[in-house]
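The step that takes the researchers longest sounds almost clerical: writing a folded protein down as plain text. The outcome of that step, for a single protein, is printed below.
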Amino acid sequence: MDKAIIDAIREKEQLPDSMTDSEIAREYKGTYTAARAAISLDHKPLDQVINDSMAKIFPFMRKKK
């Protein structure tokens, strides 16, 4: 498993730094969490895609920053 995926899993799952990369890879290998982490490296999160699409359709729904 790539280091970037392991780092993404560690961040999303809020795993302690005491867990080694090999422990995380062994525990999360082939899981839905690992798949989401791998996809998130290359793509925007689904919630962000939905928000962007809704803002195009309904401009008044844009969040004021």
